[in-house]
Automatic annotation (TrEMBL):
The keyword Membrane applies. This is DNA-binding domain-containing protein, AraC-type. PROSITE patterns: HTH_ARAC_FAMILY_2. InterPro entries: HTH_AraC, TPR-like_helical_dom_sf, TPR_rpt. The keyword Ligase does not apply. Coiled coil: none annotated. Keywords: DNA-binding, Membrane, Transmembrane, Transmembrane helix.
Length: 567
């Protein structure tokens, strides 16, 4: 007996050990696999990334935690800096010199590419460069050099930037001669192409157009017909378009610039997009297509308003806009004058080296005085003109809309009356049309079943059972002695519509016929008309009447009364 009791005690424990199955946890590689090849800023990756981060935290695996924050930074567009800071914090506490350098670099890239805060970006790049000294990760070291060159280029230090890009180009080109893994080769090719693009831009800034052109052509040849480098190809197309503009090949310039724009916009690279818009505007101006030029320049202003950012290369677009609206539209002339002053302030803050050069092109104080004069002389005129324009526009707009609406309603009424005159809304004629032999179709119904449903459905229509509220396909099928599926098949194949459409057609055709043949129904409310044909809701009736007849019931009644001379 004692043995039996021991067995009872130990059996549950043994069973738990024997039969319980420990839930298998996914590895880091398995969690990461679904999003490894997702596009940058694809938010759909984040559920997997958060799972990756949670696993790393639970296991105190700091190297994986850093990787998780890096992945989150890559895919979560709205929280890039938050995850960049998290990755940097963990790297400073538990990471290597390379980890710290990479996180400072990532913060710099966010400041530069996404926020266009060049000074803050430069500070982060310098920190990244400091931590990268002595690193064995050559790819990373040259990536830091590349981004330092990017910021120096934008700040106007072209000669210093040139040294960075030449050094990086030489390194990346040499690596392409080695036997590399597919992913490594892609990274080095992309880096090499980006360096070529930057060299192309710098050569143009330094007025070495022949060298800029040759680099552009090289980059274009390397990226053409290669979907992996669509963005890089667009950058080279942009450069070729600018080159064509300087050579006065305006048609060629326009073609290249327009082809480059969609991919650049899709990548949300608003800085280079503004450059494309600027040279498109210059190209249009050269061809005396002023309206298109103005549209392009106004795109630059939209970018400026949205991102509070403008490149020194494109600020002259405001001069063209001011000149265009001078003596034509005082309000816009004043607006773009203010925008130019605002742009000048921003450039002076973000591009101090270039700012002094820009002031050679216009006198800021003279511009301010001109602005004040415009404001003083035109304020009263603008107020009066605005009142007249707005009020006139409102009245005219109302009249135009009202007239067009009345004309459209009248036309729809006439079309409906024509269809009624042709007998399409006479219930007897509708039923007779159903007696016509329909073409043979592939169906799950036997000929006998189809004929039986047809005869019963004709009786259903003749006796106007469709006016009953709340009827359903199932209730009608039951009444006809068949099932919902067969009834649905018959209506779809023989009537050419689904059940709901069929019922709506019967009810609306019925009430339309009544409105046309019996004037007493013209005095019914919409609710009463809906009730008469079996439709429960007023709005539903009105919508179905419009869908089928192309006119609202109230508009039909109004026109019918007018036609009959009924007040």
């Amino acid at each position: 007996m004692k043995k039996f009791y021991c067995f009872l005690i130990l059996f549950p424990v043994f069973s738990q050990f024997l039969f319980s199955q420990k839930k298998e946890e996914k590895t880091f590689s398995e969690i990461r696999k679904p999003y490894e090849k997702m596009a940058i800023d694809d938010i759909h990756a984040m559920p997997y990334v958060k799972l990756y981060i949670e696993k790393a935290k639970n296991e105190n695996n700091f190297s994986k935690l850093i990787q998780g924050y890096r992945d989150a930074r890559q895919f979560d567009y709205k929280n890039k800096m938050k995850y960049a800071d998290s990755a940097l914090t963990v790297s400073l506490q538990h990471g290597s010199q390379d980890d710290i350098s990479k996180e400072y670099l990532s913060k710099g890239i966010i400041y530069y590419f996404y926020q266009k805060k060049f000074k803050l970006a430069l500070n982060e790049y310098i920190k990244a460069y400091t931590y990268s000294k002595g690193s064995k990760d050559e790819y990373h070291r040259y990536k830091v050099l590349y981004h330092l060159g990017i910021v120096k280029s934008h700040l106007g230090y072209y000669d210093d930037a040139m040294k960075h890009f030449l050094e990086c180009t030489s390194f990346y080109r040499s690596k392409l001669n080695e036997n590399l893994h597919e992913n490594e080769r892609f990274n080095y090719e992309k880096a090499y192409l980006n360096c070529l693009h930057q060299l192309t831009v710098l050569k143009r800034y330094l007025n070495n157009f022949s060298k800029s052109d040759s680099l552009s052509m090289l980059g274009y040849r390397l990226t053409d017909h290669n979907s992996d480098f669509a963005l890089e190809k667009s950058y080279f197309l942009k450069c070729l378009g600018i080159s064509r503009y300087h050579k006065k090949d305006y048609a060629g310039a326009q073609d290249h610039l327009q082809k480059s724009l969609p991919t650049i916009l899709n990548r949300n690279d608003f800085a280079w997009a503004s450059v494309v818009y600027y040279y498109l505007g210059k190209t249009y101006e050269a061809q005396n297509n002023i309206n298109s030029a103005v549209v392009s320049y106004e795109k630059i202003d939209s970018i400026f308003n949205k991102h509070d950012f403008i490149l020194p290369e494109v600020y002259k677009s405001y001069h063209s806009l001011i000149d265009h609206y001078k003596d034509k539209d005082v309000k816009k002339q004043l607006y773009y004058t203010n925008q130019l002053l605002k742009a000048d302030s921003l450039i002076s803050k973000d591009f101090p080296y270039l700012s002094s050069k820009l002031h050679k092109d216009f006198d800021r104080q003279a511009l301010i005085e001109a602005k004040e004069e415009i404001e003083k002389s035109s304020r009263k005129k603008m107020v009066i003109a605005q009142i007249l324009i707005v009020s006139g526009s409102v009245v005219l707009g109302f009249l135009v809309v009202r007239h067009r609406k009345d004309q459209k309603i009248k036309k729809q009424y006439q079309l409906l009356q024509k269809r009624i005159a042709e007998g399409k809304y006479n219930m007897n004629d509708i039923l007779r049309e159903e007696m016509i032999e329909l073409p043979v179709r592939k169906t799950s119904l036997t000929p006998e079943m189809a004929l039986e449903i047809k005869e019963k459905l004709q009786k259903f229509e003749q006796e106007q059972h469709f006016k009953k509220k709340g009827i359903t396909q199932k209730s009608i099928a039951l009444k006809l002695g068949t099932n919902s599926h067969y009834l649905s098949v018959y209506i779809n194949e023989q009537k050419g519509m689904n059940f709901n459409k069929y019922m709506a057609e019967l009810r609306i055709n019925y009430i339309t016929n009544l409105l046309n043949t019996n004037s007493k129904y013209l005095n019914y409310t919409i609710e009463a008309l809906a009730d008469e044909c079996g439709i429960a809701a007023r709005q539903n009736f009105s919508n179905l009447f419009f869908d089928i007849n192309g006119i609202r019931p109230t508009d039909y009644i109004k026109n019918r009364k007018k036609e009959l001379g009924i007040s």
